[in-house]
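Throughout our pipeline, every protein is held as a single compact record rather than as scattered files. The record that follows is passed on verbatim for readers who wish to inspect the format:
___
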Amino acid sequence: MFVDDALRARRSVRAFRPDPVPPELVSELLTLASQAPSGTNIQPWKVHVVAGETRARLEREVLAHRETLPADDSAEFPRHSKRKEPYVGRMRKLGKDMYSLIGVPKGDQAANWAQWGRNYQFFDAPVGLIFTIDKDLDAMSFLDIGIFMQSFMLAAKARGLDTCAQGAWNNYWTATRRVLAIPDDEYVVAGMSLGYADETAPVNTLVSEREPLDSFATFHGFEIPTVSEG
């Protein structure tokens, strides 16, 4: 698969088949992703890969935390800010489209809570990944780990696998830290589901819209060709 094809074909999958993913393949994907650039080549990414009983325990303990305790007081790192337009509108459009596909009516808080909880089941994917980063690194290293994650997702798509990057894992970082013995000097940044998409699931028909080029790109210093007449 060409990179262009992988970019167009990749989507956030929210329902997976139980088919196992061999550890050798996960290792191959991580090795490829490690070719991602990083500022001054510091390569700040760290990854906890979970499957089998460890994955099941992580799911159980995070969901138990979620049902019996409030969310952790805040994300481990500052990330919550007041969103404005056009970002709020894009977020709401995605949510409306997704919940319509899976039959969650507007205002049904119980169904909404249950669907959101599927994040902590990795949407039934056989493999989950938790990404961490040392706390003493600056904000640019978060950019680096994002590039690493995108590289991983494209490499996975090129091999017939699907993914869903999940910021939701940072909401219950205390349980995640405990289960995976993540050191206190690392932030739990995000998670990711990895496996084979369940193509029969309605939620996987969702294709999120993308803004046109002229809504986000400004060209400076380019000669604008004129169309000659005659």
Q: What stands out?
A: The chain has one domain: 3-202. Residues 42 and 60 are 34 Å apart (CA to CA). The mean pLDDT is 92. Strands lie at 46-50, 127-134, 162-166, 186-195.
